[in-house]
Amino acid sequence: MDDLRDKYLAAIANAGDESTLEGLRVQAVGKKGEISLKMRELGKMTPEERQVMGPKLNALKDEINSALAAKKQALSDAALDERLRAEWLDVTLPARSRRMGTIHPVSQVTEEVTAIFADMGFAVAEGPQVESDWHNFDALNIPGHHPARAEMDTFYMHRAEGDNRPPHVLRTHTSPVQIRSMEAQGAPIRVICPGRVYRADYDQTHTPMFHQVEGLAIDKDISMANLKWVLEEFCRAFFEVDGVELRFRASHFPFTEPSAEVDIRCSWADGTLKIGEGDDWLEILGSGMVHPKVLMAGNIDPAAWQGFAFGMGIDRIAMLKYGIPDLRAFFDSDLRWLRHYGFASLDQPTLHGGLSR
Ligand code: DAH
To answer: Which end of the chain, N or C, is less packed with Cβ atoms under 10 Å?
Structure first.
């Protein structure tokens, strides 16, 4: 009996997992277990022997059973401890940063431009990319024979056979949104219109699809001076240099009178572009006072209202601000390019938080 006890207690103590333990239980106190068989032998003993052996065997069986139960508990406690150790999580740690793609420079710059103009009271307006010939040209004082139509390398939409109406176009600029805004809301107006535009052109600085932002302000007493101030404020905020200097150069656009192209002072020393210093000038936008015929096309009385407009290439100012050399790469979807020039997805530009950090 002592041998049996020693053997099982030692085996139970050494059992490393629950299935070994279960094996020991069957072997010792199961139906055909060693101890159970011994108890069966009690029947063959004399009453005197039985009186001695009975309690001893029962005590042994109890002892083995409780050793099994204790070991089982210990094993399951250890398993739980192990799991808790493995699945341990410090919920007070900061979230691990995970790169979820990047924001494209065009999106980022559009947000920057929107934030700056929103601060000056401009709302965002949008128009269709497939535009009527009338909104894209005629309403902007570009009649059918006008050379600007040819110069813009327009994409024309397919026309059904026998349909002699002028075909729709992929808008060649965001200026038609001026007309749509006038039609939709009347005067006064203060909007910017960012969006995609299309021209059949392809080289280092031209792609068939690119982005512009249009500006339009119409009120009773808007002048060229307001235009100048707005554009200077914009450039100072956008390029994040206090000393921006703009040059207004007389120009011609059919939809503005007078018209001005705006250049920004810059330097190209050491091959890198610096805005606000140096002796070079870089053209960044077209602008002017809205032509009376354009106001009329938008159902606004030119005797009562006047305004300024401007149009600027978003991709172009993105290239200037962030030193991106080739426009074509903007639309190649090359992941290495996107990782390099893209912006972190939580870096929303705001005037107070910083535009481009
Ligand atoms: N629409 C012109 C272009 O695409 C840019 C432009 C020039 C827009 C002068 C204007 C403006 O609103 O006043 O080249």
So the answer is: C
Ligand 1 site, CB within 6 A:
173, 175, 214, 253, 256, 286-288, 309-311
Same domain, yes or no, for 223 and 313?
A: yes
Strands 274-275 and 169-170: unpaired
**To the nearest whole number, what is the mean pLDDT of the chain?**
91
Residues 69 and 110 in one domain: no
Q: Which H or E run includes 310?
A: strand 306-313
Least Cα distance to 209 among 108, 310, 315 occurs for 315
Atom of ligand 1 nearest to the CA of 256: 13
Mapping DSSP to helix (H, G, I), strand (E, B) and coil, where does residue 214 land? Answer: strand
Phi, psi of 144 (to 5 degrees): -55, -35
pLDDT of residue 165: 87
Q: How many domains does the chain have?
A: 2
Please state the atom number of ligand 1 nearest to the C-alpha of residue 308.
13
